[in-house]
Batch of 2 targets.
Target 1
Amino acid sequence: MKDLAVPLELSYTDRQPKAADVVIIGGGVMGMSAAWHLAERGVRRIVVVEQSELGSGSSAKPLGGVRANFSDEANIILGKRSLDFYGTFQENFGVDISLNRVGYLFLAHSDCEAECLAQSTQTQNALGVNSVLVTPDEAALINPYLDPASLTAASFSPQDGHASPAAVVAGLTRACLAKGVTIVNRTQVLDIDRQGDRITGVVTNRGHIATDRIVCAAGAWSGAIGDMAGVWMPVEPVRRMIGLTRQLENPHPTIPFTLDLSTTFYFHNYGNGLLLGISHMQEPGFCREFSYDWLAEFNDAASVYAPRLENPDLVGGWAGYYENTPDHNALIGAADLDGFYYITGFSGHGFLQAPAAGELLADIMLDRESFIDKEVFSAKRFGAKDRMFNEVNII
């Protein structure tokens, strides 16, 4: 696509417009997906404001899982549609996102977990996802690090895998710039103006932007953005850490992105090394300091389920935020406050759902029919407990 030759450096501007049709708060993969889908549908005067550097939050991490392997129908649909989008990303956006379809492998260690995976696989197949339930021995053939004696079953989805979030943000940014979207970096939202029950503007450290529509795509900071507008955004930042092993002269065998339902430990290839971690819970808060205090818990799990990974030869890692909601699933929708929209709270599976999430939000904002029920990810579900998600395939 010829118009995608716009240099990414042009996204850096200190010139904040005085007015916009839509202001998107957050310049990560969610904000850029929303911006692109709105611009693609003809919306003009879109402004994206990012408090740091574009894509410098979770979207800056070099590897992110992409999958449709969920248990809930809505998550499966969102994941599959996004996976299809990533599958043609280089063709449509001119950027190689290092999409590697090594598959996803979820592990079960009890009859109950095996039954959950069996039900999830059946639901996925009914929605067009190519996934299968495999035996412990078959799982160990797919991933030779596993001890089959510790498993009762596993589910394998071969079309899933991982890609580069930073490359996706770069591709969407170029496409947005080509469509006239304004992106303002190093710009912090200080307040949101409202008159009665409607949005009237956004105040940043650079001044005021008059607008009647804003999108909260602020990830871990979404609760604070909601507070400015008097809108409840049930999102908590939680630190999560991963480790990187030494890069070897002879690479590890190619394995799927492997996740354990019981212990929440996970691992996959990272160059000639491995990326690994365990999703133990930290106290909510804005701490992004990396440490190795998760390693003992990881080793306990690995000693049983993947003994060769116990005491891994780590050379570093990183800490980032999960943006958790009460049921650990996304918030996509419109608030009761006229003009306030949100796309946040993905609780660890945002990158893999970003393309379809941005499309859904654009359909909501423009009052168009969409590929899914437009209320399914609404924050209003927390007022009706029977509408909350019971997603199994997340850690």
Note: The domain at 104-158+237-324 is CATH 3.30.9.10 (D-Amino Acid Oxidase; Chain A, domain 2).
Target 2
Amino acid sequence: MAGIFVAGETLVDFVPDSGETLREVDSYAHRPGGAPANVAVGLARLGSPPAFWTRLGDDAFGDFLAETLAAAEIPETHVERVEGKTTLAVVSPPGEGGPRFSFYGDRDATFGFDPDAVPTEALTGNDGAASPGGASAPPWVHLGGVALTHLRGRAATRELRSAATAAGCPVSFDVNYRSDLVPPETAEAASTAVRETVAESGVVLCSDEDAAAAGLSTSEGGELARDLLALGPHTVVVTLGRDGALAVSTDDAPWGATTVRHDGFPAEAVDATGAGDAFTAGLLSRLAGSAESESGADAEALREAVAFGNATAALSVRSVGGMGSIPSREEVEALLAERE
């Protein structure tokens, strides 16, 4: 099948131990994170190793992340080492109000992608890192919303998105908006960039919380999906946390016009950090595969992809940390077989 190309940030999550509030937390554990990085590693564990364009600082945390990506068999081809401190994302204890993540460090190093360094050669289908097995079809390109909070990240994402469209690559976009990363004076520009990326992507993933934060819609569920479809994508997947996911597509989608609602799977949650990224990895691994299969994509392919994403997310919450808890393809398939 065609490869998958993921672009976006890799950072370090600091996850609290037991305790509802900061006063009750005795320690934090550092874990590799960043939504696109979680998706990239998740795809590798699910049998669809992608190419990954990301930036790592030149500090010890950058070394830690480079080692983590290498251990996950992510090709180094588009992993950039740059001057600066790695961004740290401190996860709030469950009882604290305010943002779930607070960010520290040099944001330029992590989010400041160079618009002049977009690896367009990876979009031709001739880049071995982006096309496992020597596939010649253009890769599926997946983008994350956090890079759009940074001036250069916005410009680079726009360049990559345009190049992907010109190369005939399917494009997916996880809104994943973090308003606390956006200075007030650039909030309108960041929101506009999110809206443009939604409009020019084929598949869009979004929660109602992210949609509201980005100024896209204050609706929920099916109404949110319809609001986002009106902007231009052919498929919108609304993530619903422990309640599963809803996917709505138009006639322009490879799988046709359909609506899929999957309630998810019961799970004993230890830590939900990165569960949405696990869902995204599971969904994309199936959508990219169905689009390139001999039988082609259809409504059943979308239903199977949503179920596979939900199973991946349910298994991912069993341990602490987003990236390290993503299951293997065999584990996901076993859960699906058990539920069937």
Note: The chain has ten helices and 13 strands.
